[in-house]
Amino acid sequence: MAPDDSRPRWEQRLIETTEPWNGWSISRVRDRIVLRVRERGRTAETAYLPRPNTWDEVHHRNAIRWIEAVYKAWDNGEKTLKAAIADAHETSDLQGEEKAKTWAEIADAMEASRVQQSQKCSADTFRKNWRPFIDHAVKLINTGKAHDGYSLLKAALKNWEGAPTMKVECGRYLGLFMQFAVSRHKAPASWLITEFDKDELIPKAPKPRLKAVLKDLEMLRLIELADSVNVRWGNVFRLLTQFGLRPIELQHLSSRINPVTGKPAIWCNYRKTGGEEETEPRFLEAMYVRDVNDQPLVWPLEQAMADGTLQLPTGRDGDVRKLSGSAVNCYIHRKSRSTGKPSGAVQTYWAELVDHYDNQNPSEWLRPYSFRDTYSIRCHREGVPVASICDAMGHTEAVHSRSYRTMTLGMRTRDFAAETGTIPLP
Question: I need a surface site. Which of 136, 154, 206, 251 has the fewest CB within 10 A?
Answer without folding.
Answer: 206
